[in-house]
């Protein structure tokens, strides 16, 4: 049986602002997408499907170097990009992870914990961390309308793990909704599974699995790599 991972790397990285896909940004001499794949393999993933920006498949293959991965073209948003990779999963996949290329420093322990939880029988698993800031709801002109009780809230990361039938069913539903003109508001794959009524369980996340989104995040990633293992 195979533990497979889909690595959505087809985003344009507008907030990073490099003028090229974020997955190709380099930290410590290695592209984010290559680092993300290395972390997955170190955590026990056997097969990887990387989703590249359409037209940049060759650049993504170059960035991956000798790493074994199937590269497929992505779509306009993350849901579409993950959906585009499902057909490329190996037929004997029994655990499938979805992991943002942008979370390039996720420690292998987190990957292993997600795989173990799926193997233990959970159909959908997310790494979660506590919310450190106080949360406010805001209205017109940014005026605070309420303080949100954060005690029951968690920030979720990737890799998110699924039994393959659940991930396929979740994306099939999203595709059908879209075809009918309906909205798909989930910002992660677990959200699509929740929409199916599937219970989603959490395992401990890790601050190092932060998502490189802005130039400050890229500088933080570079500093962490330079500092060495924490
Ligand atoms: N159409 C898309 C959009 C996003 N992603 C991937 O989903 C992950 C999380 O997305 P995000 O951090 O928002 O990346 P970007 O979309 O590139 O960022 P931005 O919104 O700043 O353009 C990234 O690894 C990104 O490459 C994707 O595969 N396909
Ligand atoms: C999937 C994700 O990384 C989980 O936290 C997040 O939802 C991605 O959000 P984005 O707006 O597509 O960056």
TrEMBL record:
<feature type="site" description="Positions MEP for the nucleophilic attack">
    <location>
        <position position="150"/>
    </location>
</feature>
<comment type="pathway">
    <text>Isoprenoid biosynthesis; isopentenyl diphosphate biosynthesis via DXP pathway; isopentenyl diphosphate from 1-deoxy-D-xylulose 5-phosphate: step 2/6.</text>
</comment>
<comment type="function">
    <text>Catalyzes the formation of 4-diphosphocytidyl-2-C-methyl-D-erythritol from CTP and 2-C-methyl-D-erythritol 4-phosphate (MEP).</text>
</comment>
<dbReference type="InterPro" id="IPR034683">
    <property type="entry name" value="IspD/TarI"/>
</dbReference>
<keyword id="KW-0548">Nucleotidyltransferase</keyword>
<keyword id="KW-0414">Isoprene biosynthesis</keyword>
<keyword id="KW-0808">Transferase</keyword>
<dbReference type="Pfam" id="PF01128">
    <property type="entry name" value="IspD"/>
</dbReference>
<feature type="site" description="Positions MEP for the nucleophilic attack">
    <location>
        <position position="211"/>
    </location>
</feature>
<dbReference type="InterPro" id="IPR050088">
    <property type="entry name" value="IspD/TarI_cytidylyltransf_bact"/>
</dbReference>
<dbReference type="InterPro" id="IPR018294">
    <property type="entry name" value="ISPD_synthase_CS"/>
</dbReference>
<dbReference type="GO" id="GO:0050518">
    <property type="term" value="F:2-C-methyl-D-erythritol 4-phosphate cytidylyltransferase activity"/>
</dbReference>
<dbReference type="InterPro" id="IPR001228">
    <property type="entry name" value="IspD"/>
</dbReference>
<feature type="site" description="Transition state stabilizer">
    <location>
        <position position="22"/>
    </location>
</feature>
<dbReference type="InterPro" id="IPR029044">
    <property type="entry name" value="Nucleotide-diphossugar_trans"/>
</dbReference>
<protein>
    <recommendedName>
        <fullName>2-C-methyl-D-erythritol 4-phosphate cytidylyltransferase</fullName>
        <ecNumber>2.7.7.60</ecNumber>
    </recommendedName>
</protein>
<comment type="similarity">
    <text>Belongs to the IspD/TarI cytidylyltransferase family. IspD subfamily.</text>
</comment>
<feature type="site" description="Transition state stabilizer">
    <location>
        <position position="15"/>
    </location>
</feature>
